[in-house]
Amino acid sequence: RLSCIRNNIWLASCGVLSSGLAVLSSFGLMLFCGVPFVVTVANAPFLILGVGVDDMFIMIASWEQSLRKKEKSSVKALLTETYAEAALSVTITTLTDVLAFFIGTWTAFPSVRSFCLYTGTAFVFCYVYTMTFFGAVLVLNHKREQGNRHWLTCMPVGVGKDQAENSCLYNACCISSCSGQPSQPAGEHPMSIFFKNYYGPFVTNKWIKLLVVLLYGAYLGGSVYGCTQIREGIDLRNLANDDSYVIPYYDDDEKYFSTYGPRVMVVITESVDYWNETVRLGIESCAQNLE
């Protein structure tokens, strides 16, 4: 927003900070518990950031709606209304993510198990920080706006009597707004207006409903066909960079040696005297008989 009071840059930054705190808390707890840190775990912060920012937008949108409904209400009533609107959706999405990753800990692959443990725990902490830390930040930001304080310096900002002498940019950055009016709650968001007045009536048209059902049927059929084409296993090429030296190796291995099947190795588990010629001949004879 162009208003130096209604600008919510710090609020958005605290939403990102909330995700960062969740990552630090989960990583610290898992490392303290002795869960091994593997390289795939380094991708977890990006997942947490995506979910955390999504929860932040839900909380802010609910807060703005509560502010429009109960403009003169107390902070307690506003926050209660916000949690009533946003907490359910945030809880359900977090719960499904946590269950998905904790179910993944049953895998036999240690690296995948560590990744799921770290990420699932981070989702739990992300939910806790969103419901506690970010809610408190919402209240503090609201009090700053109510006090007509600048978003950056938090110093009181006057309406200004001689705004005509200043540029609109100066008034927006150093006074409350270009118009010279005190900060007021924003109106309905243009995106909300679009979905309510245009997209909603369009989707609920009976012909559009039929088209949506047909498209979903085609999508479902394509998905079922795709499931029948899935091959079990993993292509080792996908684990390396495109310019890695192992890519030509795997290509040549598949081209020239794929018909021979996997390698067969003989492992001697006992301690033997390899310096003894008789023992060496016995091992060689065993290998020839196996061949």
From TrEMBL:
The keyword Membrane applies. It is a multi-pass membrane protein. Pfam families: Patched (PF02460). It comes from the Eukaryota. Residues 1-140 form the SSD domain. Keywords: Glycoprotein, Membrane, Transmembrane, Transmembrane helix. One of its GO terms (cellular component) is membrane. Belongs to the patched family. This is PTHD3 protein. It comes from Chaetops frenatus. The gene is Ptchd3.
